Amino acid sequence: MTMALDRRSFLSVSALAGGGFCLGWGGAAAAAASDGQLNAWVKIGADNSITIFASNPEIGQGVRTSMPMLVAEELDVDWAQVQVAPTLANAKIYGRQVAGGSMATTLQYEPLRRVGAAARALLVEAAARQWGVPAASLTTGSAMVRHPATGRSASYGSLAAAAAALPAPDLASVPLKSPAQFRIIGQRTPGVDNRAIATGQPLFGIDAVVPGMKHAAYHKSGVAGAAVASADLAAVKAMAGVRDAFVVPPGPDHAGGIAIIADTTWAAQRARSAIKASWSAGAGSFQSSDAWARLKAEAVAKGPTKPIAATGDVAAALAGAARRVRAEYAYPFLAHVPLEPMNCTARVAGGKVELWAPTQNPEPGRKAVAKALGVAEDDVIIHMMRCGGGFGRRLMNDYMVEAAVIARAAGTPVKLTWSREDDIAHDWLRPGGWQRLEAGLDAQGRVTAWDNHFISYGKGDEFARAAEMTPDDFPGGFLPNYRLAASILPLEHNTGWLRAPENNAFGFVTQGFIDELAHAAGADPVQFRRDFLGPSRIIGDPAKRGHYHTGRMRGVLDKAAQMAGWGRKLPPRTGLGVAFHFSHLGYFANVIEAQVAIDGSVKVVKIWVAGDVGRQIVNPSAAEAQVQGSVLDALGACQHQAISFAEGAIEQRNFGDYPLLRMDEAPPVEVAFVITDFPVTGLGEPAYPAVAPALANAIFQATGVRLRQLPLDTSLLRA
Amino acid sequence: MRLNVNGTLHEVAAEPDMPLLWALRDLIGLTGTKFGCGAAFCGACTVHLDGEPVRACQTPVSAIGTAKITTIEGLSASDTGRRLQAAWAALDVPQCGYCQAGQLMAAAALLDSTPAPSDADIDAAMSGNLCRCATYHRIRAAIHQAAAAKGTAA
């Protein structure tokens, strides 16, 4: 929700049938009052029921709990009194409904509190008028208004009808609680859906059931741009449980392929393996990891072709350096693999398209579906189902478009379910890349120059989505002599945003290389980082979102080092590694203790994480979970995961060759938040990037072997 | 074909090779059991056959016979199940929640055979159940809490 305060004039109050009231924006409340649609923020029933609407996609980050907590706090009700209800996707009413960029808390921390405060102000005003006393003489709590001077009290529900007749208060000036008055914000609050999850209730996209629906599988080539050349579907159509099979032409937002409509998911999947089809050579046919290795070698020989940033005189500074350090870092393509495979249920009828979609980003899906089916965007209705993980994959809505196109062609409601193999083959990958770095140190061990030949993927001179580096990427702005220039290798496969996009790779590179510089300078890795950050100040434009506060980073660096007992004596082949990274407005540092066995296998003993996301943690339980989850996500990826290509397509197929971290590999992760007087920001992503480098740095401390490529190759660590 | 699911007999028109997962989800309408990989890598589809944890995606309905099937929807029928569900909610285990049905079914089978498991017991029993959100610390803690609650009203 980018509910800017200049929209306050649209705040509306509506009476509910039965004496309640509804508070919303832009006609939302009126709609809720008139036809029961779920599209207002707060609903108070005459029976004192308190309903708070959660408008953001839930992917496991806990927004269905934490966002309503913000409203409930200022509404001044008990959390136990609150029921949370979902909304449809509707940007006109709710603004930004996206699970991406770790932005929900950042954007909604204050506006949603103002929604709750405005509702409370209406109820207080209604009581003041009823009792003929000044509003300022009234107090609230537990969904009651009280007049301490006379002992009178009234429930919110009994006041709701009168409150609904009052003009909406001015959102910008409605008073908010001071943090010392918080009773809900800052409390460990279990997720509102925990019980439903633990009893197997249908919550997820894949659980959607629509009367008369059939099940669909969709068979596509793994090679980008390959189209169906020929398909013999007669045998497939004759299989038990199969209702239809047909070729789907490609569109701007979906790939072409062969759809199978069947009575069950199983029948559709089984029939699919019987399809005999040939494919045209797609634009992606050239893709292979071997071909890119050759192209990368050519790019190294040729040098960068795309300048990105240049400050000072890097060549002169390197020439004059007391010590020069060179290294090449590399990281692979990664897939998102949320545990719930892509799926969407679609019904096309009466000129309308209704979708039950586990999506992180419904509005682009709405546009793409409207375009693909030639209907108005307002005729696309999107039920945002709970997502069985997102990690950025469901920011892209290709499966939504496919379901709509297939349902229309089939003439019946359809649930499209991808297999795990589909999910990997058609992931929007985290782009791989290389960074060839050279830095100069002066006689005192200070970094004077940093040169980066960055090699990644794209088309022509343009980086692929989520592949690019910008002048603001660390350490841009930190050094007097800094140069960043790139080469771009050709890529046709889709790429996209994976948790802490770009940063999830760049953190590994910069924090590994800084460790090398510390070693070259003979300095302690923590102290070297403190010196690199320098005095507390802002790097970059303070008016821009991405500016970097060195003092905040110093704070989490020192905290993580203190938590881990930095400098303590360690057993043989055991090391402590440190790293920090700033992304998504969050400052994170972590220390990892790792033990390396004689056979090279690595045991992560413990991880200590310190984060700074401003002055308030909204829900400490979910916050801790997001940090631990991000850290273990990164730990699994840096040890196990890589996507490779052969003959145009991805080679990995399932969790057998693309493994996730398992419970017996999950070390303790101790989390501390450093509270600073800065705006409250999000936690879905920023703890991720500093994990891989801290592990590589710990391995170096343990063994003296510097690993510069992901996933970490432990065969290099044998004693 | 008849399947005994959570104490109820269901007549299902399933072909013999249909995995139990899809009979449960698409024919019987119990969607709590989840599809994650279709290849026994992830454990999201874990159910009990006569109390033993199995991967429903790898269990053809023809192999079940009269065995009693317990799914997440039937977990509350047992004291072990109720203790686990209470601990899961109280310790705020789920993030996205998609794997948790399988985690709970694996944990219930563990507690039924090992009422007071060690961390090593838990790791051994649970490492076949993947959690993409990595809620592993809280899963471990919740199993300990549920074990400790044995004998108390759950």
Explained architecture:
The complex is a heterodimer of chains A (719) and B (154). By secondary structure, chain A is α+β, with helices and mostly antiparallel strands. Chain A has 3 domains: 191 residues, Aldehyde Oxidoreductase, domain 4; 154 residues, Aldehyde Oxidoreductase, domain 4, CATH 3.30.365.10; 332 residues, Aldehyde Oxidoreductase, domain 4. In chain A, 29% of the residues lie in helices and 25% in strands. Chain A has 18 helices and 31 strands. In chain A, the strands form 8 sheets. Chain A has a 7-stranded mixed β-sheet with strand order 11-12-9-19-16-17-18, sandwiched between helices. Chain A is globular, with a radius of gyration of 28 Å. The N terminus of chain A is likely disordered. Chain B is of the alpha+beta class. Chain B folds into 2 domains: 73 residues, Beta-grasp domain (Ubiquitin-like (UB roll)); 73 residues, DNA polymerase, domain 1 (Orthogonal Bundle). In chain B, strands 2-1-5-3-4 form a 5-stranded mixed β-sheet, with helices on one face. Classes of the chains: A alpha+beta (719), B alpha+beta (154). At the A-B interface, helix 6, helix 8 and helix 17 of A face helix 1, helix 2, helix 3, helix 4 and helix 5 of B.
Give the biggest beta sheet of chain B.
Answer: 5 strands, mixed
Please bin the fraction of helical residues of chain B: 25-40%
Tell me which CATH architecture of the largest domain in chain B applies here.
Roll
Low-confidence stretches of chain A: 1-10, 30-39
Query: Which CATH class of the largest domain in chain A applies here?
Result: Alpha Beta
User: How is the CATH topology of the largest domain in chain B named?
Assistant: Ubiquitin-like (UB roll)
Distance between the termini of chain B: 36 Å
**Which chains share the greatest interface?**
A-B, 66 and 62 residues
Oligomerization state: heterodimer
